[in-house]
Design a protein that fits this description.
Blueprint (H helix, E strand, L loop, with lengths): L2 H20 L2 H8 L3 H15 L4 E3 L4 E3 L1 H21 L1 H5 L5 E7 L1 H18 L3 E7 L13 E6 L7 E8 L1 E5 L1 H7 L13 E2 L9 E6 L2 E6 L9 H9 L4 E5 H9 L4 E2 L5 E3 L4 E7 L7 H14 L4
Parallel strand pairs: 3-4, 3-5, 8-11
Antiparallel strand pairs: 1-2, 5-14, 6-14, 7-11, 7-12, 9-10, 9-13
GO molecular function: DNA-binding transcription factor activity; sequence-specific DNA binding
Pfam families: HTH_1 (PF00126), LysR_substrate (PF03466)
GO biological process, one term: DNA-templated transcription
Length: about 300
């Protein structure tokens, strides 16, 4: 496609992204200040140029096709680049403007990231944050993300990684449960206890521990499994069994005496522990908003002594 044809498609690309983001032609037309029929013509023109259906149109809403999802991701990058061009002078002056898209694990988002995001927006009112909450690793390239938070000992090799601290996994139970069922003094004892586990993956009921040179693996069972830390913690508080959590999830409950740490001398090996790592794609040009976000998170989560 030659440059003239590509330039002619740019308004249609903007219209397509706006329709996907807003969810309908009507909402998109209001944002673009054109008629719904005008937006529809732009989408049809783009589909014809690309020889692909991008939206499945129904009477109530528009659903993005599989090809439409791919085109949307690339189109969003075009718009982001244009936005960076528009704001390049303000970036040079250090003004924090524009949108940041971030992915982070559920419990970390709820307990740690949520208040920090609000503080960042209060500090930089011209910035916009878009948070995707998922316990699965979200590829920043495929989802057009600026940053990905991950609790891991092994950051992704194709991304820049910034360590923001460390979190451990903690085994705990309520006082009432331990009074009724006894206190385990070795990980092997857990096979005789009610244990609440994630049930996200087939081996989630296999718990691993280490102490000194000893490594222990134990298969546990229990009446309740759920992949939501807050729900699982409430069950532990109610005396339903023993659970494993990132320490930032149970820190307050331990301090309040609602739960008690079990086997504190043993290291719990869990995939929801390790370095709190902020990861992002390498880029020659880093907008002020990205630099500000990195500096803010470093100062908030890993402040200097």
């Amino acid at each position: 496609m030659d440059t003239n044809k590509l330039m002619a498609l740019l308004p249609d690309i903007v219209a397509f992204v706006t329709v996907v983001d807003s969810g309908s032609f009507t909402a998109a037309s209001q944002r673009l200040r054109v008629t719904p029929s005008g937006v529809s013509r732009q989408i049809s023109r783009l589909e014809a140029a690309l020889n692909a259906d991008l939206l499945e149109r129904t009477t109530r809403k528009q659903v993005t096709t599989e090809m439409g999802k791919v085109v949307y991701e690339f189109s969003q990058k075009i718009i982001d680049s244009a936005d960076d061009i528009v704001h390049v002078t303000s970036q040079e002056l250090g003004e924090v403007t524009g949108e940041l898209r971030i992915a982070a694990p559920k419990a970390f988002s709820r307990r740690i990231l949520q208040p920090l995001m609000l503080e960042f927006l209060a500090k930089y009112p011209k910035a916009k944050l878009r948070l995707m909450v998922s316990d699965e690793f979200v590829d920043p390239f495929g989802h057009n993300l600026d940053f990905v938070f991950e609790l891991t000992h092994f950051p992704r090799e194709n991304l820049v990684a910034k360590s923001l601290g460390h979190t451990n996994a903690v085994l705990c139970a309520s006082r009432s449960y331990l009074q009724s069922h006894g206190i385990p003094f070795h990980p092997d004892n857990l096979s005789q206890h009610d244990c609440l586990y994630l049930n996200e993956q087939p081996n989630d009921n296999v718990w691993r521990f280490s102490k000194g040179g000893e490594d222990v693996k134990v298969e546990v069972e229990g009446p309740y499994s759920v992949n939501h830390s807050e729900i699982r913690l409430n069950a532990v508080k109610q005396g339903l069994g023993i659970g494993i959590f990132p320490e930032f999830v149970v820190e307050e409950a331990i301090q309040n005496g609602e739960v008690i740490q079990v086997l504190p001398e043993w290291r719990v090996i869990s995939r929801y522990q390790g370095e709190i790592t902020l990861q992002f794609p390498q880029s020659k040009f880093m907008p002020a908003r990205r630099r500000a976000f990195i500096d803010f998170m470093v100062a908030s989560l890993n402040p200097e002594p």
